[in-house]
Design a protein that fits this description.
Layout lengths: L3 E8 L5 E9 L4 E4 L15 E5 L2 E5 L11 E5 L4 E4 L4 E3 L9 E5 L2 E5 L12 E6 L2
Antiparallel strand pairs: 1-2, 2-3, 4-5, 5-6, 6-7, 8-11, 9-10, 10-11
Length: 132
Amino acid sequence: VAESMYVFGVGDSTHVYLNDLWGYALDTRAWTHVLNTTESAPFPRSDPSLVPLGNRLVVFGGDLANSLDSALHCFDLQRRRWHDRTAAVGGDHPGARSGQAAIPCGGGFLIFGGYGSGGTLFNDICLLRVRP
């Protein structure tokens, strides 16, 4: 994970959202479409958080075009599989949101801000821990 940057989910002005996962290798400056081996990829979305935690990438929230999401999904970089980990979250579980900032912190990750339904702007901080 340290030598790569990852991007998940894309939306455009026509609300066509994708659930693609892309990796960018910093040393070769090349993009790679990361394929998964299961059917359990998160729904297409825009503006989720994507945070590296060990050998996993954690996706939280996002705009699903007709609603906002509060689910948490992990992508195992070694096994190339998605897992819904919403039920395995410890700490403060924030409500559905999109456009939030997120950073790794103490074995989990911090979520800051974002917007909720109706355009409500959040100014909160939540620490989420994902149990194995």
